[in-house]
Amino acid sequence: MKKLIALLALTVVLSVPAWAATKTVTLSVPSMTCATCPITVKKALSKVEGVIEAKVTWEPKEAVVTYDDAKTTPAALTKATENAGYPSTVKK
Q1: Confidence of residue 35 (pLDDT cuts 50, 70, 90)
Q2: So what's the pLDDT on residue 22?
Q3: Which domain holds residue 82?
Q4: Residue 38 near residue 57, CB atoms below 8 Å
Q5: Residue 4 pLDDT grade (very low, low, confident, very high; cuts 50, 70, 90)
Q6: Backbone dihedral region of 62: left (phi > 0), alpha (psi from -120 to 50 degrees) or beta?
Q7: In the predicted structure, residue 37 carries a pLDDT above the cut 90
Q8: Is the per-residue pLDDT at 48 higher than 70?
C-alpha cells in the first residue's frame, strides 16, 4: 500500500511542469489610434491560453500581459494582437 501511495505521489509531482512560471511582458502596440482600440486588443490577448491578465492602455500605446510561460509565449501574444488588426512588438 505504501508503494502504491508513493508511486501515485511521484506521478502527480512529475506530471506538473516544474519549469512553469508566471511571467510579464510589455508589448508596444503603436497601431492603436483611438481610446476604444485597447478593448479589442485586450479581448484578443485574453483569448490566448495561458494569459492570466492583460492591461492595455492607449497612452502609452502598450499592453502589459501576465502569462503562464508553460502555456504561451510572447510570440503567441504578438500574433494574437496582429490577428486582431493591431500588430505589436515586445518592448525591451
Answers
A1: confident
A2: 96
A3: 19-90
A4: yes
A5: low
A6: beta
A7: yes
A8: yes
With residue 3 as reference, give the H or E element that holds it: helix 2-15
Asked, for residue 30, whether it belongs to a domain, the answer is yes
> Residue 79 falls within a domain, yes or no?
yes
E strands in the chain = 22-28, 51-57, 62-68, 89-90
How many domains are there within the chain?
1
Q: How far apart, in whole angstroms, are the C-alpha atoms of residue 91 and residue 63? A: 10
At 61-85, the pLDDT tens digits run 999 999 999 999 999 999 999 999 9
- Residues pairing with 55 in the sheet: 64
Is position 5 within any domain? no
Q: What is the CATH number of the domain that holds 47?
A: 3.30.70.100
For 56, which DSSP code? E
- For 52: left if phi > 0, alpha if psi spans -120 to 50, otherwise beta; the answer is alpha
Task: Answer whether residue 61 is part of any domain.
Answer: yes
